[in-house]
Amino acid sequence: MAWLTAHLKTLFASKRPKNPPKRKPPTREEKGKYRATDIDDDNNNNNITSSNNTQPASSSTSSLSPSSSSTTNSSEITDSDLLPIIHHEELHLIPQILTQFPAFYLIGHNLPPAPLPQAKHLLTSPESTKQSLVHPKKSTVRGYNHAKSSGREWWDYTPDHGGTLLTLEDENFRYKTKEYFEKSIELLQRICNEFNQTLNENGEKRVVIPEAVMDDIGFSTMRYLRYSPTILERQNNNNNNNTITQSNNDSEPPVASSSSSSHSNGSSSSTKNNNRKSQQQQQQPQKEDGYSLPRMEAHTDHGILTLMTSTEPSGLYVWDRNGKIFSAPPISGTVMIIAGDLMTHFTALEGKNIVNDGKDAIGEGTVLPSVHAVVLPKGGAERYSVAVFLRPKRDMVVSKYRVKKEDGEIVEENMTFGKWAEEKGQVRGRRCWMVGQERLSGGQDV
Ligand SMILES: O=C(O)CCC(=O)C(=O)O
Ligand SMILES: [Fe+2]
């Protein structure tokens, strides 16, 4: 485990790209042109442009310098924090964009409307309906779950059996859910394919992302989330009534804790620790310093890519590799895409791997996983979101790691996606490996 802890700690102290994008600072008019409500496919001829933040506290006084060359202190959010918007016709730009920005918006994607009404429908169903969607072995990546102490509840789609398990008895709901999941996965697979079109130093194409990712949905899933002060209130009034195990690590739990085929829960020591921790949390009074707002603590996703969209108010933030924070509100007509842990494994320098070589495996083309968190603004309405996670099968070998045997011999073993996810789940602070995140996590995960 030491290798993993060390790796996680060093990852975000790694090199910044030598050639940061040189973008002209947008004028206020240009920024206004791309405001959330104005964007549609027809008026957006630029392939890359900048998103406009809608809620930075300091926006009125800050300068309009490009984000990448900004010297802003990492914990400040200013008007210069602009995430790029890429047109679907320009998917080939994405491998480079993801080395420079922690997220991008995609426009012109032809996805069906985001199933946010479906998310609301399911997550505001009667409690008895929600309880009937809980996985028999309490998997936190299949069916209904909640983290009341974080003011959040969610439901994970089960793609197996045509999406008919742990779901609502509603044909329209099922159709819209399945359709959005399948189209989003196809889109994420097309983006992965672009990584295999880039040329290496010798001008040759190399397989960066295993072909199996493009051919199979693997352990991909889709999540509907709801953040609401009323969930926190229920928690306050009803501290001992939780029927579902509360975990502090539920945003991306060990994949091994839920098997799509066997539905085994694989109850691990980390789960027991989390239970103890969450019981302690429930006994603590809610803090009054903002941490009692509905939220998802800072973390990175396990998989390859995540596609996200949400209602307002957003409260979604992403960090770049230098610790700079970007606000990432929903922009109409777009979806937001971020990289997960596996993207770092796949895009490591040729001949190196991040598990054994740490920072030395990270080159200019290496994509780091995006740290992200959600904190609802104070007094805001509730928020719904949809996240589609592209993940390979759990037995896919994603890396190698060295193990010292009892006789002292060092051997290399395969690191599968399932093993990666399971071990990450047991590392304290796995949610986020950056200095500064304690502001969002309540300081518990550093
Ligand atoms: O609600 C969101 O927008 C983010 C959800 C998320 O990060 C997750 O479920 O891993
Ligand atoms: Fe996430």
TrEMBL record:
Amino acid composition bias (Basic residues), ranges on this chain: 15-25
Keywords: Iron, Metal-binding, Oxidoreductase
InterPro entries per the UniProt record, alphabetical: IPNS-like_FE2OG_OXY, IPNS-like_sf, Iron_ascorbate_oxido_reductase, Oxoglu/Fe-dep_dioxygenase_dom
Comp. bias (Low complexity): 44-75, 235-249, 257-285
Sequence segments annotated as region (Disordered): 9-76, 233-292
GO molecular function, one term: oxidoreductase activity
Limits of the Fe2OG dioxygenase domain: 267-392
Ranges annotated as biased composition (Basic and acidic residues): 26-38
Keyword Isomerase in annotation: no
Entry's family note: Belongs to the iron/ascorbate-dependent oxidoreductase family.
Name of protein: Fe2OG dioxygenase domain-containing protein
